[in-house]
Amino acid sequence: MIDPRVELLLALADDDLIIGHRHSHWTxxxxxxxxxxxxxxISQDEIGHAVLWYRLAAEVAGEQGVRDLATRAPAGGxxxxxxxxxxxxxxxxxxxxxxxxxxxxxxxxxxxxLYDVAEGVRLTTLADSSWRALADATGALRREERYxxxxxxxxxxxxxxxxxxxxxxxxxxxxxxxxxxxxxxxPLPGDAELAADGVLPADFATQxxxxxxxxxxxxEAVGMDHVLGGDxxxxxxxxxxxxxxELVAHDDTAAxxxxxxxxxxxxxxxxxxxRHSSDFIEVWEEMTGTxxxxxxxxx
Amino acid sequence: MVTALTGVTSxxxxxxxxxxxxxxxxxxxxxxxxxxxxxxxxxxxxxxxxVPTYSGCPATAVIREETARAVKAMEGVGSVEVRFxxxxxxxxxxxxxxxxxxxxxxGIAPPGSGQTLLQIGRRPGLGADGMGEGVxxxxxxxxxxxxxxxxxxxxxRSSSYCNACRNPFEVIKP
Lengths: 299, 174
What we know:
The structure holds 2 protein chains of 2 kinds.
Chain A: H1 4-24, H2 33-69, H3 79-85, H4 96-99, H5 105-126, H6 132-160, H7 164-180, H8 191-196, H9 204-221, H10 253-256, H11 278-293
Chain B: H1 2-6, H2 10-17, E1 36-42, E2 45-50, H3 60-72, E3 79-84, H4 97-106, E4 108-109, H5 113-119, E5 145-149, E6 157-162, E7 168-172
Parallel strand pairs in B: 2-3, 4-7
Antiparallel strand pairs in B: 1-2, 5-6, 6-7
Helix pairs in contact in B: 4-5
């Protein structure tokens, strides 16, 4: 069995690594140069945060523990690289939401916003962890994440108050991303033990409620809260899922997120247990290509 | 020589760290940027704790190597260990006064940019508060600047624009 602390760190790290990789797909092709810079910078931050979590996970797991997790962990190689790039797809713990392609600008920004609010809640929670090394690591990350939220909220405001086309794209993006956002709060194997030890000061259901409170207030402020019921058109259209995850999601959330893979459960769940969509395979192949060709390669 | 008898001190090491350039802003040293958290010397063994400006900073590996190389070159030093810690959070306020002056001369607005410009003899236009506070253009000293983006060419810098001299410039992220 994997140490529950390692499970937690891998979930944190994999979310950051994969969203960072998806954000980097805007590098060079964003609508204008400031956004090119913004998404590239955010991507760099997120991947940097992933490295920090992988290092801590490698310290906890030890060399043998890393080898048990990663099929490619060459002797003398960097253990955090092996964790980040040397695992098989089923070994990754990221939420399905973060592995989806960027689709359009509306979806990208909606996901960026929902994810960074969730990350803020997560880091604020972990700042009170009884595990000192984990609590310490949140300090710098929370400082850096402020800029991500600043960026996401600025765009939420801009698109929500923009022309109808902007609102439509944002609403569509929010509905699709909200449908899979519960996956960010999916329970982890062994999280009861972490809660009992005070490593995890608030369970994921509590974090999800905190997250939803923030999202609801923000969306009400910009007059977009109708998307919380899964309705992009304000009174028209088909119900999909509530963001709280309390209601069973529409039978094909994957359709909402533009995926080819409809075989997963509702609410974007499964990622924390290593179940992923075909979108993940695509991003995994691209991301790990060099490392698989040259295991242990140094950057 | 007396120093050879008493060995290296942490002050000696800190003096050397004041000469190790930041790879992305070479006029400024890692010490001036406020990255040095602790220096421990045990006879000929030296340990240096650094804090990265931003955890995603790609320059950390180079900074670690350059720091270790510079300290290793000191007379009387046997072994060096440089590590990055996260027990403190880096903030721009950690940048020293000489560091701020060099950043301003390099064209990057440091924290307290107005005061810094005064110190290097470039009078900033006094802002609305009359105190030279806020982000002042390091190129012309004007207060008439606007934040362009919270992001810039490196994780620790943001982008601003000067309405007076019509130049974009970089700011150490607050």
